[in-house]
Design goal:
The chain has about 55 residues and is an all-alpha fold. The protein has a domain at about 25-53. The chain contains 2 helices and no strands. The protein is elongated. Pfam families: COX5A. One of its GO terms (molecular function) is metal ion binding. Belongs to the cytochrome c oxidase subunit 5A family.
Length: about 55
């Protein structure tokens, strides 16, 4: 007879660890938008760069 006290938990509990990857410069929304507008307005942009972006 198996009782509740004799059961082994088969549920994996992952360690509760998190990492913070924000060690770089924080970019504002306006800077982000300006960077991509500049990128897409390049006169020599080709189809590969459009797909890549």
């Amino acid at each position: 007879m198996v009782t509740y006290a004799n059961r082994v938990s088969l549920v994996y509990e992952a360690p509760l660890a998190s990492r913070c990857y924000s060690h770089g410069k924080q970019e504002t929304d306006e800077e982000f938008d300006a960077r991509w507008v500049t990128y897409f307005n390049k006169p020599d942009i080709d189809a590969w760069e459009l797909r890549k972006a």
